[in-house]
Queue: 4 jobs
Job 1
Amino acid sequence: MRVLVIEDNNDIAANIGDYLEDRGHVVDFAGDGVTGLHLAVVNDFDVIVLDLTLPGMDGIEVCKKLRGEAHKQTPVLMLTARDALEQKLTGFESGADDYMTKPFALQELAARLEVLARRGKGPKSRILKIADLTFNLDTLVVIRAGQSIQLNPIGLKLLQALMEASPSVVTRQDLEQKVWGEELPDSDSLRVHIHGLRAAIDKPFDKLLIHTRHGIGYRMVDPDAVPA
C-alpha cells in the first residue's frame, strides 16, 4: 500500500509513517497543502491521509481541488483535532472518504486505510467532469447544470476525446482519428460537428468550455479553474 501523509505536525506524521512502514507500506510526506496537492496529483497513491488544518491550503481546499480540478479519486482519510459534526460534514462534502479525530489509535488508522485502499481498487464508474458538465461513459448520459444534453454518436466521441485530454489541446488530426479512424471525412466535417457540439454544450450556458486553438485544434477547459 502506497500512502501519502499530508500533515504539518512532524511528530504525528513521523508516528504514522513509522507505524505504516514497519508493516511494509510505502509512505510519502508533505507538510503543507500546496505540496500535498501536487504530490497527490502527479503520483498514484493507494490512499491519502489528509490533515484538516494545514499551512498554505487547508485540507478542505486540497480535497476539493483533488476531486474537482485534478479529477483524482484516490481515497482520502481526513484528520482533525475537532470533533464537531459540521466539520465532518464539510470534510465529506469536499470529497473525503473517511474521518478520524485526533488523538487516534495507529492500529485503527492503519485498518481504515487498508479498507479504503481496497475500496479504491474496486470497479469505478467512468464519469468525466469539467465545471458543471458531466459525461458518464458507461451510460452515455451527458448533463450540464442539471440539464440532460442529447448528442449523436459523433458528438459523444468528440466530447469524450476533449474531456479526457482536458486541459490539453487536441489537434484536428487526432480528433479526426479518434472519431473516424482511418476513413477520414472531408475537410469541413470536423468543423461542422464541433459547431454542433458547441451548440449543445456551450450555447445555452454562460460559461464556454470548448475553446479553439486556431491552426492547431480544440480543447475543453473550465476557464475559472485553469489559466488560458
Note: The radius of gyration is 21 Å.
Job 2
Amino acid sequence: MTGGVRSGKSRHAEALLAGAPSVVYLAPGPVPDPAADPEWAARVAEHRSRRPGSWRTVETADVAAALRAGDPAEAVLVDCLGTWLTATVDGLGTWDAPLRQWREEIEARVEDLVQAWRTRTGPAVAVTNEVGWGLVSEHRSGRVFTDLLGRVNQQIAAASDDVLLVVAGRVLTL
C-alpha cells in the first residue's frame, strides 16, 4: 500500500487487517526518544491508540528477522518501508565509504527484506511512501534515497498479490 505522506494509507492498512484474529504490527525503528522528538512520539502514540489490543507491536530495526520470526501464517503489517529505509541508512553511519559500497550494502538489506516478505503465507500489508510524488531534496542524498525507496517499493510490489494507492483517503487498486 503506497501513497503520499498523511494520505490515510496507514489507517486503510489497519482496516484491511481489522478482522484478523491476531496481527503483528512491525514498526521499523529505532523509535526516537519522545523527549528528543515529541512530534514523532505523538504520531506513534496516535497509531498505537488506533490498534486493537489483540495486535502485537514489534518495534525493530531488523524487519526482515521479525518477518521470519513466529508463525508465517499470522497477519503482519509493516508500517512503514520509508521509515525502515531511513533507519537502515542511519544505521550505516556516514557516507565515508564510497557511495557504490554503501549502496551495495543497502541493496543487500533490501534483498533480505524482500526474501523475508516472501516467507509470509498469511495476510501481509506493507505501508510505504510513493517517492514519485514526494518532495525529496535535489541533492545526492535525496536522489539516492528516492532511488532506493523506489526500488524497495517495486520489489515488495512484485512479491505481493495486490498494490493499493491511497490518495487523499481514497484507495485505488493498481
Note: Residues 99-118 form the longest helix (20 residues).
Job 3
Amino acid sequence: MTSDDLRQLLENVSTGRTDIESALARLGTSSVADLGYAQVDLDRRARCGFPEVIFCEGKTPEWIEGVALRLIEAKQDCLGTRVNAEQAAFLAKSLPLAQQDRLARTFWLPTPGERPAVKGKVLVITAGTGDLPVAQEAVVTARAIGTHVELVADVGVAGIHRILRQKERIAAADAIVVAAGMDGALPSVVGGLVDCPVIAVPTSIGYGAAFSGVAPLLTMLNACSANVTVVNIDAGFKAGYVAALIARRAAVRS
C-alpha cells in the first residue's frame, strides 16, 4: 500500500465511507497478493525502495503475466529478468508497452507518470565482449532503480592499457560493476584505481578449467583490493541492484 492509498483509506474511515473492521482487514491483507502460484509482495517498494522483481526462469509465460499485471494494478514498477525467447514473444503481445532487452533478457514496465529523480552514477565494465549479457542485465537493473548508468565493454587484463584509458570515467562513478569470466582478474585492477565500491560479477565465460564461472568466482573472492565485493556467478541483476542502491545513497549524502 502506497502512502496515497493509506491516506485515502484513512479519509474514508474518517468520513464514514469505510468502517473500521473493513479498514483493518484491508491493512492486514493488502501487502501480499495471493495468486495461487505466487505470493506477490506489494510492500517491498515501501520497505526496500524498489518493487518485487520477477525472476522469469522456470516460470510459464502466463505466470509471469499474472504477476506483472498484479504489480501494475498496484501501481508498482515491473521488472522481469532471465526472460527466454518464448516468454519474450508472449509478453510482447500481452504487455506491449514494456521495454524488452534481449541481450539482457529483461523486460521493464515502469508505472506511468512522473518518475523518481535519477541519482548517482553507476559504471558497468566488462572484461570481454562475451560478458555483455550479464553486464547488460546489470545496466537495465540499475537504470530501472533510478541511477545514471554507463557501460564500458571489452577492457580486460589481456590488454591492460584499455582499462587505464578509462581512468576519468571510473573515477567519476559512485559504484562500479565489473563482469569478468576466464581468470576474473579485472575487478582487482579496477578496485586498485578507485575510491568507490566495486561489485565483481564472475561470469560463466571461459574454457574447461574456468568451471563455468567457479574459477573467476574464487579469484574475485580472494581479490587483493579491499573495496571489491562479489556476487554470484552471472548475477548481473544482483550486481546492478546493489550498485544502484549504493550510488543513490551516495548522491543523497554528497
Note: The mean pLDDT is 90.
Job 4
Amino acid sequence: MQIEIKIDSSCTEPKIVIMAASMTEDINTIIKRLSMDPPQIISGIKDDKLEVLEQTDLIRIYANSGKVYAVTDKGEYTVRLRLYELEERLDKNQFVRISNSEIINLKKVENFDLSFTGTICVKLSNGITTYVSRRYVSKIKKILGV
C-alpha cells in the first residue's frame, strides 16, 4: 500500500482520497477507522469521589454482584454503566471482552497461557490472573492469530 501526503496551504479542510483497482477488506477497514467516533469518557467512583478514567490506564473492567468495576494501577473504581455500554465506549482495537462479566485491556496483558484445556489463562500487568470463558476462546485466538 502506498501512502501519499500533500501539504497545500490553500486547503481549508483535510481531504482523504483512496485510489484502488477494486474495493478490498483493507479499504473497508481504513474507512471504518476513519469514520469512527473518538472514544467517549468513562468515569468511576472511588472514596466517594468521581474521577475521569483514561482508557489507557484501564487494566480490566468486570461485573460482580450487580455492580461494575474498573481496575487501574491507582485502584478499583465503581462504574455506573453496564458492561455492554462500556464496551461501546472503549477502543475496539485495545479492549476485548473475555467473558460475559469481564473486558480486558490487551495492552495491559503480560501473557496468555494456552495450556489450559478449553480456556485461556490471562495474566494482567497488575498481577491479577483471569480466564477467558469457553464461549470467547475462539474470538481471542483469532485476535491473537493462533
Note: The chain has one domain: 42-144.
